[in-house]
Amino acid sequence: MANVVLVGWIAVTSMTGAVSEPIEVPRNTPVGAILAFFAVILGFSLIWHIWWLVIVGLIGMAGAGLSHAWSMDREMVIPADEVAAFERALAPLQSTGGGS
After folding, report:
1. Which pTM value belongs to this model?
2. For the segment 35-71, what is each residue's pLDDT rounded down to a tens digit?
3. Which letter does DSSP use for residue 25 in this model?
4. Which of 2, 36, 39, 93 is 20 to 30 A from 15 via CA?
5. Quick check: 77 and 22 in contact, CB under 8 A?
6. Which residue, among 67, 81, 74, has the nearest Cα to 25 in the 3D structure?
7. Can you spell out the DSSP letters for 27-81?
């Protein structure tokens, strides 16, 4: 069997000497966990016909979803110097095949 080594974007840019650029990444938010919580409440209340709890679950899910949809500050920028430092730290691992 052939030994296949996957060379990622970071390894290619560090080998070619490409200049690092700032990277935009999404911020971590608890919206997924909040939606899951209200979905469990909604499912439980629909199965057992607890109609007031159905309303609570629907309002909670709608509120969490809409608040996340209207949030304007959802991204952060990793500066180019941090990206370059990360690439330099990974260079020895990329040359050895990822350490595996």
Report:
1. 0.64
2. 999 999 999 999 999 999 999 999 999 999 999 999 8
3. E
4. 2
5. yes
6. 74
7. PP-SHHHHHHHHHHHHHHHHHTT-HHHHHHHHHHHHHHHHHHHT-S--EEEE-HH
